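Sequence in, structure out. Go.
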Amino acid sequence: MRGRRLVTTERIVAIVAEGGKAVLEDVEAWANDNGLYLDSISVGEPIESVVDDTASTIGLTIGGDGTFLEGVKEFSPREIPLLGIDAGTNTFLVRVSPDDVETALSEIIRGHATIESRSQLQVRAGDLDGTGLNDVVIEHIEPVKPVDRKITNLEVFVGDEYVGMYRGDGLTVSTPTGSTGLALSAGGPVHYPVKNHTLQITPLLTHHIGVRPVIVDEGVPITIEPQGPVVVSVDGGRHHRTFDPAVPIRIELADETAELIHTSAEGEFFEGLSTILGWNIRGETKPEVPSHVVASDTADSILERAQAIAEEAAQSVGGPLRELHGRTESIEYKSDKADVVTEADYQSERIITRVLESEFPGHNIHSEEDVHHDTGSRYTWLIDPLDGSGNYANGNPNYAVSIALVREDEPVVGVVYAPETDELFSAIKGGNAYRDGKRISTTDRDQLNESVFMSGYDPDGRFLSHFYNVTRGVRRLGSVSLHLCYLASGSCDATWEYDTYPWDTAAGVVIATEAGATLTDASGESYTIYGGMRERNELLGSNGPLHQSILAHLKTHELLGE
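Output:
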């Protein structure tokens, strides 16, 4: 996924190696031109002196792979995305050249870069508790005299199973990212590092020639019991210990990942690998991607492109929203105390609006909180950055992000994302409705007593009291957009909202309608997001077969709109 949330970048923190001063000056000039703050430290200086707020911050390393690994060590625990600039060395991990710095940084602030979550390993042994992006190396202690014994014996266990005794110089346990390091030189395979969550055990100068690397999946720990003193080194010495006497060493995938920024300036993984290793198997020209692996949706039309961008924007705020979910340290109240605005509201809205402004500068952008962009275009984006903020502030998982594109007064693109369940609902007018890429549709039930309803704001409880006993129940999630999406996907048969606002319903209306739902007001007139001249804009949505029965019940019990 594109790193859409990077459009809110305001600050760069750089770790700079010797020889990187000229590149740093170029970065500083670019940052000044683009209104960003820049702080820098030399390798080895305490990063706390320049990192006081991680929001809207990216990390930068200027140097080689060693500087980059130092950056991973410092930035990953702070959840700061990292980009590496190669300051003139031949590197595996850092492939942005000084000549491409401006290109890479410009892609980042436009939201056109990607963020790759790379697996890290966790090492625990004695007083050592550290993480690494590349590898951990366990080897013998260099003898005082050259003629003394140089062999180390390591008993290895994978999960609960005994692998055996490794005799030789030692072994390395590497992540997929680290497979191109010491493990490669010791005869291990190259791992494609993206979405790869494995560890590899590779012996170093083993005395048993038949021993080969072993791949271990996530969730399975590796335990190494040295039979004598050893040296343990993580990521080339970022963590380093000598254990004499020996102690058990436990290695597994870390919960903490490294968030690495990838731009077009770096090229592709195998392109860089082939060049560095001299494979000479790619030829001079790159062939076209085979047609069977090209996505069928080319996003040529404005609506298809709008749908794709809205999906990326919605998913990009999932991480920040999940991180802040349930925290109530910073809460403001609007005039209606049920509508809680948290810091998450602002973060989500800011990311989404920046993405849309970047990709569709000619469109209007309106959100629940404010009018961000008004150009007079026939296209308007309606955003609810946190639908269900009352739930959110209290730790309830029923909240969503709602993004809709309206053409004149008609919603034509709808995207709703539920961060806690990672469900993405999406539709274009005149097309189909989807949840996580799979087509969805409403139910076909036609009996009230077989149906489940959802209800939004119901000030005097009349809807609940008159429908609860004639159906299988009335549920209330506290999120209008989720109600409409669950109607669309068949998780309920009808939904009722006493009053609605355009940003609440626009996205859900497209999704529900294209899934086969019928949407009206309480009198049976077609629902419109702006509500015409009515004092309030109620919404009745159903699967279709139930609609007339519900309208009749509403009329009988005088639940019509005012």
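Check: The CA atoms of residues 65 and 266 lie 14 Å apart. Residues 292-300, 334-340 have pLDDT under 50 and may be disordered.
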